[in-house]
Amino acid sequence: MTAGAARGNFWWCSNCREEVDPARVTFQERHDSCGHAVRWIDAKPTATIRGTDGQPLDRSEYADRLEAQAYGPADGDRVRLTYGDGSTVQGTWTTTGDGPVLHLDDETLHHVNGASQRTILARSDVGRRVALSDGEGQAIASLLDELAGVYPDEPLGELARRLAVMMYDRMGI
């Protein structure tokens, strides 16, 4: 749980995946360091998911993490990072203990910090396929649909619905 979640409410930047100090939120409700829109979070704790401190996470923050996991770059993907000043770098995405890095074409490492846009140029198939039976896939999609119904106006519910629809589409339902 972030400090903001412990207090109750806070500003959240989905791009930087961090709580934003109110002094760093512009009048247009943008994060002053990356320029992306921030949103006001009315903290709502998760029911079962806990942080490393043993405290519940905020559901909206947790939804952002899950969305990044589901749709963001994964190890082996070819990625271009674009910064606020227009500069770009591209390379192969790798997750390390110190956070994500790009292995650039010149074989140097570039730590991923403050990039305003991450563009996936090519997906790696390594570690992306999970085999489920049709019944398992339908059950998981139905559970995601139920979760979407429990949290209809929250990021967690919206993500659950998008993932359920994706699974239904892949199963031809």
DSSP strand content: 25-35%
* Total DSSP E strands: 10
- Structural shape: globular
Give the low-pLDDT segments: 1-7
Largest sheet entry:
5 strands, antiparallel
Give the strand order, joined by hyphens, for the main sheet: 9-8-7-6-10
Distance N terminus to C terminus? 37 Å
H-E string: HEEEEEHEEEEEHH
Give a nutshell description of this structure.
The chain is an alpha+beta fold and 173 residues long. Helix content is 30%, strand content 29%. The chain has helices at 3-7, 59-71, 134-150, 155-171, and strands spanning 9-13, 18-20, 38-42, 45-50, 56-58, 78-82, 88-96, 99-104, 109-111, 117-122.
What does this structure look like?
- This protein has 173 residues and is of the alpha+beta class.
- It has four helices and ten strands.
- The chain has helices at residues 3-7, 59-71, 134-150, 155-171, and strands at 9-13, 18-20, 38-42, 45-50, 56-58, 78-82, 88-96, 99-104, 109-111, 117-122.
- Strands 9-8-7-6-10 form a five-stranded antiparallel β-sheet, with no helix packed on it.
- Strand 6 and strand 7 form a beta hairpin.
- The protein is globular, with a radius of gyration of 18 Å.
- The protein starts with a helix and ends with a helix.
- The model is unreliable at 1-7 (pLDDT under 50).
